Amino acid sequence: MVPISYYLILSGILFACGVIGFLIKRNIITIFMSIELMLNGVNLSFVAFAAQWHHLSGQIFVFFVMVVAAAETAVGLAIIIAVFRTRETLNVDQVNLLKL
Amino acid sequence: MLHLVLFLVFGAICVAGAVNLLVQKHPIGSALSLVVVMASLAVEYLLLGAEFVAAVQVIVYAGAVMVLFVFVIMLLNAGEEELTKGSRVAVVLGVPGVLAGGLLVAWVLLRHSGEHTVSLGALPGYPKVIGQLLFHEFLLPFEVTSILVLIAILGAVFLASKPEATPRPTGKEN
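ok -> structure tokens follow
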């Protein structure tokens, strides 16, 4: 028997690691991986709540989150390739054309 | 007892992989530690009884998505990242802020989440049950996601394709 809150805390730790990576990383691919980490943390909390309320809708929702994440990854990596073609860098600090 | 031990072991692997993702300088190291995180998360899903979700996690996330990441890292020949001024500010301000927020959430969860516990495989998410839900109750969202994936494929192909040699605006040649 494991308390639900343990699972939620694990998912919170994963989400916090994702947020920290999003903030401190400067490589655009690593930032993208941090977003995936955040999505995984949220998925874990969905499955934990599904087990708590004995309702399978949470697991269905995880399925949809995964589909959206896969689509997002495909489009995002294509955008990264396009950015690399025009700017020749992966550092987000050097992609600053919109900056004043 | 076995459930708790398995949860703690794979949760520790999960957190270690997530921290390693932050520590690694080279993106390929981050990608491989993300694979570790996703694989151990699949075990956590199995412990909660979500068999279908665990299988999809391994196939889609640890398989397809991470192959895409590694492929792009190698395609773009990504090197080690260099720290800049902006990232130092983020380290100084962001990390303590996120840690404080996380500790607050953990405290609230531990204090107020009640005595809910789960046993091993509490809610069996067999593929049969999931499929019945997916194709009866959630049929419309399912079809909408298929359209979304189609648009994503088209967008990815369009964005990643080499820009054609744009025909130069030919005025009067002289």
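Residues 126-160 of chain B form one domain.
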